Amino acid sequence: MKIFLFLLACAALLASVSEAPAQKVRLGVAGISGTNAHPYVSKQLGLYQKYNVDMELIAFQGGSQLIQAMLAGDIPMSFSEGVTALATDIKTPQLYFIGGVVNIFPFTILSKPEIQRPADLRGKKIAISRFGSSSDVAVRTAVERHGLTDKDVLILQVGGQSERFAALRSGVVDAAIVSPPFNLVGRKLGFKEVIDVSETGVAYAHQQIVARKDFIDGQPEFLMRILRATIEGLGYWKDASRREAVTQNVAKFLKLDAQKDKDQLDETFRYYGRVFPAKPYATVEGLELSASILKKARPDAKDLNAKEFVVNRFVAEMEKDGFLVKAMGGK
Q1: Low-confidence ranges of the chain (pLDDT < 70)
Q2: What was the pLDDT predicted at 16?
Q3: How many CA atoms lie within 13 A of 311 on its CB side?
Q4: What residue spans define the domains of the chain?
Q5: DSSP code per residue over 137-184
Q6: Over the stretch 158-195, which tens digit does the pLDDT of each residue have?
Q7: What tens digit of pLDDT does each residue of 264-277 get?
Q8: DSSP alpha helices (H): ranges in 19-133?
Q9: Helix (H) or strand (E) holding 96
Q10: Secondary element (H or E) of residue 5
């Protein structure tokens, strides 16, 4: 009888542990886009719940607003572009880069059909979002890689992707920098993908996993569970058998029709499945480029050392214990 009661007590204890409420966390992204879809998809597919994380995803209107919310203590982690995070945290560092989701430029330069090669961009107008943005840096980097300088082209601030695409369609500009799925839409309308900037080989901190220092120091086990869920979700984009599950939820996030917009969704899946790194470390090289951009624009950033903002030990632990290989399908 005593043994039975002991076993019953153990079973009750295990049940109470397994039914422990999931820990809540708010994660931020800088707007609704294909690049920012992955945490939403992971949540919808139950991956955060799998790691006992109750994740609330908040889409901000731009990176600066997102980082200000972090500094104010509203959210402990986010997916942010490197320059934005560094720029708002120079004097009293509170934010650190703990992983890298997109460590290159995920852009394509679309052009009018008559522009057949990069050299044909000489003297042409190219639409970006704003000066100093990742789209601006990407255009300048791309044309330089093809023998032009930023003085050989006319770079215009136009706004978001929809505005840039509209400017190209109306003939206001000769080319525009976009990310998936706008590249596919452009191809269907007869525009030319004159440069795939992701193929330049330039490291860039386009989307990093950013965490507040107090969260890193105070809740490392919880942070690790959030990271495991996030990285396992990235692996889904590299698995063709999960294409439909991913794209159905991307459609919800981007407010697209899963059937009518299937080609766009498939292109988003294909593109980011290639872009997401098999080892999602924060990119030191890419962040050094971000720091160099800041130093040109702001005197107070002259002593900025990007390496001091990188904490890669969590991803390193996942690589050591075999989690990365398993999550990324052995790639």
Answers
A1: 1-19, 89, 330-331
A2: 43
A3: 18
A4: 23-104+204-327, 108-200
A5: HHHHHHHHHTT--TTSSEEEE--SHHHHHHHHHHTS-SEEEE-TTHHH
A6: 988 889 999 999 999 999 999 888 888 888 899 999 99
A7: 999 999 999 999 99
A8: 38-44, 47-50, 63-71, 82-87
A9: strand 95-102
A10: helix 2-18
User: What does the alpha-carbon distance between residue 182 and residue 162 come to, in Å, rounded to a whole number?
Assistant: 9
- Give the strand order in the sheet containing 108-111: 154-157, 125-128, 175-178, 108-111, 192-196
Instruction: Give the integer Cα–Cα distance in Å for 153 and 161.
Output: 19
Q: What pLDDT does 61 receive?
A: 81
Distance CA 140, CA 144 (A): 6
Token pair belonging to 309: 């903002």
Degrees (nearest 5) of the Cα angle 86, 138, 146? 145
> Which amino acid makes up residue 192?
K
pLDDT of residue 17: 40
Q: Which residue has the tokens 């043994």?
A: 3
Amino acid at 304: L
DSSP 32: S
Element (H, E) at 194: strand 192-196
Rg (CA), the chain: 22
CATH classification for the domain delimited by 23-104+204-327, as one of 3.40.50.1370, 3.40.50.300, 3.40.190.10, 3.40.50.720: 3.40.190.10
Rounded to 5 degrees, what angle do the CA atoms 262, 263, 268 make? 95
